[in-house]
Amino acid sequence: MKGYSVLVVDDDEDILDIIKIYLQNDKFEVITACDGVSAIEKLKKQAVDLIILDIMMPGLDGLHTCLEIRKEKKIPIIMLSAKDDPSSKILGLDIGADDYVTKPFNPLELVARVRSQIRRYSEFNGEKPHNRDKIVIDDLTIDTESHEVFVGENLVELTPIEFSILKVLAENRGRVLSTETIYENVWNEAFYNSKNTVAVHIRNIREKIEINPGEPKYIKVVWGVGYKIDK
Fold it and tell me: Is residue 205's pLDDT more than 90?
């Protein structure tokens, strides 16, 4: 479901990776956190459309994380747990979860439940996904509808090409994009000896959005491969 984002919270990295792969295959944007505290911090910086939340985590567990999220957010929450007894399911649903999935689970079924919850929530509220028109990365906000970019409260003046490059990198954050890929996505023509063209534009973007362009926070270079924006 392109345009929708999901926050997956689990202290098991293998489970995080599996869920992320299946959701991304279904065109979801995926954000991950390994515990409840970091999940809450990420929600302060970036809006999401649904949360998949493991119950058994060290520190702030899934139940208490759900309670904290429900104080501020009205978005679908799917609980994950190894406990399949009725009392655990009832407790999870009572504190604010919208669905409860027991481990081990079928990843395809989980993705179907994600789609169902988002569809139901959107239809009930008559809302678009929170992040369809805006991409938020820490203090950087990219409004894809108005073509405006903000660093904190400050509007950044980018050229149309600069905006398109930044947007392509932001939409693929976490992935390294080659110079050729960036060029062909932005200019919509075959790449031919245009490495310097992309590099110059990225240098200009950095000068406008980075506090210290020499040590960039947002656009990173992967030598010999390309550029990326970290998750």
Answer: yes
